[in-house]
Write a structure and sequence with these properties.
The two termini are 25 Å apart. With 218 residues, the chain is of the alpha+beta class. The radius of gyration is 17 Å and the shape is globular. The strands form two sheets. Strands 1, 2, 3, 4, 5, 6, 7, 9, 12 and 14 form a ten-stranded mixed sheet that branches. The chain has one domain (8-213): Jelly Rolls (Sandwich), CATH 2.60.120. The chain has helices at residues 22-35, 42-54, 72-84, 89-102, and strands at residues 8-11, 14-18, 60-62, 107-108, 124-131, 136-137, 141-148, 157-158, 163-167, 171-175, 181-183, 189-191, 196-200, 206-213. Strand 1 (8-11) and strand 2 form a beta hairpin. It contains four helices and 14 strands. It comes from Ensifer adhaerens (Sinorhizobium morelense). One of its GO terms (molecular function) is dimethylpropiothetin dethiomethylase activity. InterPro entries: DMSP_lyase, RmlC-like_jellyroll. This is Dimethlysulfoniopropionate lyase.
Amino acid sequence: MLEDAGKLESTGVIKRAAGRPADLQKVVLAMGDLFLADSAPLMAKFNIGKIIHLLERPGRVRVDPLPTADGCLLDAAREVLSNVALHSEGYKRFSEGLQSVFGRLEWYTGRGGAFASINFEQNHRHALLVGPGAVEHRTDVRIGMTVLGSYTRFPDHDQFHSRVFIPLSFGEYRFGNDRWVSAGPGDVLFNAAGRQCAIRCTREPLVMLWCQIEGRDR
């Protein structure tokens, strides 16, 4: 349900309402618990603390339904969300919220680049839960989900904002000149602004949530 659901505004052709839906709020609260775990890197906790503070003020929420998204990649993502719920009680709450929001996500593809696998353009999807044009529209924070199909490598790229990752299935990550590391459920990763980021997966599709601070909300 939406808080203040009667207060509607139009952003272009998209109708939006004040308040945050209960399922998206569940994602935010569970995300905070997971990202702030004792094992999380200090800088990840620092950034997540600032993000949670910004999210205390809800943005504008899309109320128009989207066409049902389907396809093998998104089916694989749904399976990952079901499986990660078995990892712990915290991941169960996180998974339940994500599965509820999943049908309202607008999926898109990115561009290829250096070291991307030849199947990258057909074998990945991104969606924003929070951010410009997302389920919750705002310009100070982005919370996104990325899906990589089996045996796919994301193009190496420099990140302009510090970013925190929470893998929901297993994949491999390399930040800057560090070595590749394998990470999955239970891990939290941090990459500082200005450092290169490389991501790949093997047989198991990779689903990850990521978030970053963009700047002042408008």
